[in-house]
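Sample pair:
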Amino acid sequence: MLTDSHTHLNAEQFQEDQDEVIQRAREASVTRMVNVGFNRETIPSSIALAEKYDFIYTTVGWHPVDAIDMMPGDLEWIESLCQHEKVVAIGEIGLDYYWDKSPKEVQQRVFREQIRLARKLQMPIVIHNRDAHQDILTILKEEKAAEVGGIMHCFSGSWETAKQCLDMNFHISFGGPVTFKNAKQPKEVLAQVPLDRLLIETDAPYLTPHPFRGKRNESAYVRLVAETAAEIKGISLEELAEITTNNAIALLGLK
């Protein structure tokens, strides 16, 4: 009863064998997958995937790397799509200071606009954060994101950062990097996150967990993340799977 709370099954890396990848996830006891639509190309295909499979859900949002490409009317388009029964959150949204395609001020404006939309619609948000911890926290606070909460996707920050996110009504999600042998900080943070605020994910096809690091990730591998998380928490895999699935159901309204 595993849930992959963040995956990209509509990515080009799965063009040749998407159905087989989904089937392998089901065989690995992944009962629910949340696919992420994050720009003009991926949002329609993510919705189509959620319409095709009753156990796949979707988010819609504008990724910070693509913020420069957001046109007038795109925010209204996202708002209209949020009425779809399989759309469960706005995301992934946030800040990415690693890639320099979109200027910081453009990223911040697009991020703020989408938080305001989420508050208007009372929908949770999925946060992408790369090398931008302080600005993410500042904007979440200024825009009153605690009113809707959401998910800190593939969390990579410190426990101090995690505490501030928890205080703002966010769940903390861990992916493949927590399984790496040298992942001291993610393991320490996961150990302290309350079980009722914990989620697991793959971010497939990226961030593949050990022992497949360097190869294409897929949703079936969320089981490897779950095994590591269960070990850190000192509980069984079955209990960890049930808790994180129930957290995703409660937060995102999954069936």
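Residues 196 and 246 are 9 Å apart (CA to CA).
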